[in-house]
Amino acid sequence: QVQLQESGPGLVKPSQTLSLTCTVSGGSITTSIYAWSWIRQPPGKGLEWMGVIHYDGSTSFSPSLKSRTSISRDTSKKQFSLQLSSVTPEDTAVYYCARNVKSTTWGPIVGYDYWGQGTQVTVSS
């Protein structure tokens, strides 16, 4: 049983940095056939993939968010974190962390198998 739990402030002021942490239980963030993503859903819109961190710490990001996004990890705590800088009200969304499944260590991501419950983050002054 793998569980993911998002945590962090629910309210962020414009121009500040949004910081969230995903804590993983029942799994390992260093297993090579899995990767770990952040996804968000703004009000009334669909899911938007933000970025991913792989078992070796390498990262990839959505082109639209790359300049503002960072993902890091703490393997000892089995956590990975999202940093989104220079936020605006357009960044208001429910933010999810999720585990990706890869076909092989070096293969493509084929889907998601576990999700956190999501956490609401509102950008407002």
Characterise the protein shown here:
The chain contains no helices and 11 strands. It is mostly beta strands and 125 residues long. It is globular and about 45 Å long.
In the predicted model, the low-confidence regions spanning at least 5 consecutive residues are none
User: Strand tally, please?
Assistant: 11
Describe the largest sheet.
Answer: 7 strands, mixed
Q: Helix amount, in percent?
A: under 10%
* Helix/strand class: mainly beta
Distance between the termini: 39 Å
User: Judging from the principal axes of the Cα atoms, what is the shape?
Assistant: globular
Total of helices: 0
Roughly what is the average pLDDT, rounded to an integer?
95
Strand-residue proportion:
over 45%
Rg over CA atoms: 14 Å
Strand and helix order = EEEEEEEEEEE
How would you briefly describe this protein structure?
Helices cover 0% and strands 54% of the residues. It has strands at residues 3-7, 11-12, 18-25, 34-41, 48-54, 59-61, 69-74, 79-84, 93-102, 109-115, 119-123.
Write the layout of secondary structure elements.
Elements: E1 3-7, E2 11-12, E3 18-25, E4 34-41, E5 48-54, E6 59-61, E7 69-74, E8 79-84, E9 93-102, E10 109-115, E11 119-123
Please describe the structure with a list of short key phrases separated by commas or semicolons.
0% helix, mainly beta, 7-stranded mixed sheet, 4-stranded antiparallel sheet, 54% strand, 125 residues, 11 strands, single chain
